[in-house]
């Protein structure tokens, strides 16, 4: 999960499949490109997160490791939500002005 959650989500699965390359290849708008890029990355992130969250369920009933299990489960959940929802929204909001200015100049 560190590889998937800790790396920039725009290049986590394939460095050639950034939202910018999706919009340049197919002539898509920025919002379509960001949605497509997030959708392509959703399956590997969710499967990895589920695998990382299922492991700590076995130590939830242990009083010593209960806190560790809770932090692993919810940390992975928050990391996945940030990677699949928040970061694409931030990417879109940061680049929507650039795309609009670029479109006006032509």
Describe the protein in words:
The protein is an all-alpha fold. It contains four helices and no strands. Helix 2 crosses helix 3 (30-54) and helix 3 runs antiparallel to helix 4 (66-105). The longest helix is centred in the C-terminal third of the chain and has 40 residues, at 66-105.
Describe this protein with a few key phrases.
0% strand, 106 residues, mainly alpha, elongated
* Beginning-to-end CA distance, first to last residue: 42 Å
Strand content: under 5%
- Compute the average pLDDT: 78
What class do helices, strands and sheet pairing give?
mainly alpha
Low-confidence stretches: 7-13
Q: Report the total helices.
A: 4
- The proportion of residues forming helix, as a percent range, comes to over 70%
The H-and-E topology, N to C, reads as: HHHH
- Sheet with the most strands? none
β-strand number? 0
Topology:
Elements: H1 2-6, H2 19-26, H3 30-54, H4 66-105
Helix pairs in contact: 2-3, 3-4
How do you describe this structure in short?
The chain has one domain.
């Amino acid at each position: 999960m560190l590889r998937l959650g800790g790396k920039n989500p725009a290049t986590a699965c394939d460095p050639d499949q950034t939202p910018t390359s999706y919009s340049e290849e197919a002539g898509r708008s920025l919002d379509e490109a960001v949605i497509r890029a997030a959708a392509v990355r959703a399956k590997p992130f969710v499967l990895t997160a589920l695998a990382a969250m299922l492991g700590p369920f076995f130590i939830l009933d242990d009083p010593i490791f209960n806190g560790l299990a809770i932090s692993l489960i919810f940390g992975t959940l928050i990391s996945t939500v940030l990677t699949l929802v928040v970061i694409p929204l931030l990417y879109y909001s940061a680049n929507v002005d650039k795309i609009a200015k670029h479109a006006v100049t032509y």
